Amino acid sequence: MGVATPAPAPPVSAAAQAHGGGTVVLAFVPAGERAIASVPGMSVGILSATQGACERGQLLLDIGQGARIASSAYRPSRPPPLTLRAGGRAGAGQLAGWSAVLRRAEDAPQLLQPGLLVSSLAMGAGYVAVAGSGALDAPAAADRAGRVASVSLGPPATLGERIAAARAKRRLVVADLPGGAAGIAEMNALARSRARGDLLLALQRAPNGQGHELLWIGVAGLPGGGGRELTSATTSQRGLVSAVDVAPTILAHLGVAVPDEMRGERIETDGRLDSAGLRSLMARLHVVGGRRLKALGVLLGAWAVLLLAAGLLSRLARGRTSAARAGAVRAWSLRVGALAVLWVPTAVLVSAAIEPGAAVEYATIALLCLLLAAISDALLPWPRAPVAPATVAVLALVIDALAGTQLLMRSLLGPNPILGARFYGFGNDLKSGLAVLALAAVAAALYPSARSRRSALAMAGVGIALAVIVGAARIGAGVGGVILVSAGFAVATIELLPGGFSRRRVLLVVCAPVLALVLLAAIDLLTAHGSGHYTGSILHARSAGDLRDVLVRRYGAAWRELKNHAMPAATVLAVLCALAAVRWRERLLAPVGEDPAWLAALAGGLAAGVVGTLSEDSGPVLLVVAVFALGCVCSYLWGRPPSRAAAPYRPTASTTIAVDAGSEGIA
Predict the structure, then answer these.
(1) Residues whose CB is less than 8 angstroms from the CB of residue 197 and which lie 6 or more positions away in sequence, other chains included
(2) Same domain, 236 and 91
(3) φ, ψ of residue 324 in degrees (nearest 5)
(4) 484: Cβ–Cβ under 8 A, 6 or more apart, which residues?
(5) Structural domain includes residue 4
(6) Which of 70, 139, 54 is nearest to 102 (CA)?
(7) Do 302 and 447 share a domain, yes or no?
(8) Domain stop point among 421, 440, 466
């Protein structure tokens, strides 16, 4: 563990007294965590640099505007090249190409104002660098017009003196430090000269290319002292902040009101610095994205091996007894394989805790899922086994979030900070899958069921609980998750009521997501003080234009996801499977005799996938995940033990669908 020793509080600087407050130095350094953490008084964290593939130019623009969108949402996707022209009036500089930056931001599907940070300061910002370095990070010092208030370019030997001179005139100074020992020495000198009321931010310089979406950041001068880990309300994760948090932190420190257009939050300290732990987190976040589909492929391959072995056994069977045993093995392999997939949300937390190599992680997830599936199948009679993976997964995720162990973020199903995830609760890959898992658990617990208010109440109660978990800022932080869960469980609840669907009940299904969002707003305001993902993006919107920006950004991202890699084919396949399931639902549910609870679960799961597609920026991903999870649930049902006969289902008058306006309501 490397812990930087906090330096004693220095006196208030003359510059701070002259400006009526502190000053801020934003230093870009080509150094890693060890060098930054070695600077006295530094607190350190990981910075999520950009949303999408990282480019230094875009990172600098995001810092200056305090907001960001996916790089693919821009047209063009890459920022225009900028060149600093120094030598203007009173030593000012101008960025050539800035007009193209403004046009690009104006066309983006969100309100973006490049240079907003510096324009919020009355005196502008100063830029200090070594002559001939190419003005690497000057855009961070530019205002809305692309103007840099003062530019100082000179030899490396005078860099420290020139930074001090700029701090005497400007409240914000952006400095490019050299690499190697010289840069580390300059950081230490800045830390030693930092007076009480001054803030020093050291940000690892992003290489001029893609693939460096996570960078190191150090801050000295925050409340709480140095030698701690950084966090912010943007991520709500210890040791992790976002690039859009830099501007609000600077403005808040200088006592300047943070503009509403800035989407970041103030950087804060949280817990003692564990350098080894942060480096481990950084390394883990770099590998999770590439392992997701491969891990699932290994698990599905193991399931296929089970099925092939069972099929081979049935071919080799001779006689009635051997054939019966072969049939039982075949059914068992179908059940266990399907249950194994349902155990994935739990198994990935285990592999995240041990952080093994790729091959070991794939094997760990596959073997653990199959083992848990076999145990749950042995302990719980068919078709009740889905209760186990659903209950354990939800409890494990809640405990992880409340305890701050960060296993979900480190897992293969967690949000992906390396791609600039905007929040760090339940990722879109998990939301619709959890909804299907919970619906299946309720159906399993109620089996054999009948349409009744008691069954509907049980379904509604689980739906409300899951919506609270998915939407709570400290746990799931998912606005779209609340919408899809409430819609899915509303459909399932109505399906279980005597009398089926009526106009009044259809209206209730439509209103359920709205009521859930009202509940989410209350939870956000009570538990997150209005800083949750929902209240931060929707309730804090200042106008209809802001809401339009949110919707355009969301559906633009969904449309891009639809065209991504194999997603078009996966979406078409999911839609065809869903249509086939609706068309032949009686045949699909034959193992449970068209049990009403299981019919409600499948209808609710499909509704959750469709609504999630329409409400989340990952779009078709949620439908594909929901249909895949529903397919696994149906596979489990079709793995019915030969000794278990399907429960007879006898339709009654209460199952007819009422469509007249006077039909019975939910009460």
Answers:
(1) 12, 13, 16, 21, 22, 23, 221
(2) yes
(3) -65, -40
(4) 431, 432, 435, 608, 609, 611, 612, 615, 616, 622
(5) no
(6) 139
(7) no
(8) 421
The DSSP bridge partners found for residue 240 are 46
Residues 225 and 118 in one domain: yes
**78 in any annotated domain:** yes
Q: Quick check: 167 and 27 in contact, CB under 8 A?
A: no
**Residue that wins the pLDDT comparison between 20 and 51:** 51
Q: What is the largest CA-CA distance in the chain?
A: 99
135 and 212, same domain (yes or no): yes
Angle in degrees, 0-180, between the axes of helices 319-342 and 358-379, rounded to the nearest 10:
120
- Same domain? For 468 and 376 the reply is no
> How many angstroms from the chain centroid is the CA of residue 621?
14
Q: How far apart are CA 64 and CA 102, in angstroms?
A: 13
Q: Which pLDDT score is estimated for 19?
A: 45
Sequence-ordered alpha helix ranges (H) in 317-343: 319-342
Which of 245, 273, 301 is the last residue in one of the domains? 273
* pLDDT score recorded for residue 474: 79
Q: Which tens digits make up the pLDDT trace of 185-235?
A: 999 999 999 988 899 999 998 776 555 688 999 999 999 889 999 999 888
If DSSP states are collapsed to H, E and C, what string results for 71-82?
Answer: HHHCCCCCCCCC
The DSSP line for 433-458 is: HHHHHHHHHHHHHH-S--S-HHHHHH
- Looking at the DSSP bridge assignments, the partners of residue 230 are 269
CATH code where residue 25 lies: 3.40.720
Would you say residue 647 lies in a domain? no
Higher-pLDDT residue of 538 and 158 is: 158
**pLDDT score, position 327:** 82
- Asked if residues 29 and 187 have their Cβ atoms less than 8 Å apart, the reply is yes
Count of beta carbons in the 10 Å neighbourhood of residue 224: 12
Strands 24-29 and 199-204: parallel
Number of separate domains in the chain: 3
Q: Residues 20, 21, 26, CA angle at the centre, nearest 5°?
A: 135
Residue 559 half-sphere exposure, CB side, CA atoms within 13 Å? 9
- Report CA-CA distances (Å) from 563 to 292, 422, 557, 568: 19, 21, 10, 6
Please tell me whether residues 364 and 428 are part of one structural domain.
no
Average per-residue pLDDT for the chain: 84
Confidence of residue 20 (pLDDT cuts 50, 70, 90): very low
How confident is the model at residue 166, as a pLDDT?
94
To the nearest 10°, the Cα dihedral for 421, 426, 432, 435? -170
Q: Are residues 293 and 426 in the same domain?
A: no
In a domain, 138, yes or no: yes
Residues 354 and 257 in one domain: no
- C-alpha span between 592 and 544 (Å, rounded): 49
Residue 589 has a pLDDT of 93
| Domain that includes residue 364, residue range | 287-421
Minimum mean pLDDT range among 54-58, 155-159, 252-256, 450-454: 54-58
**What is the helix (H) or strand (E) element at residue 28, kind and residue range?**
strand 24-29
CB atoms within 10 A of CB 359: 10
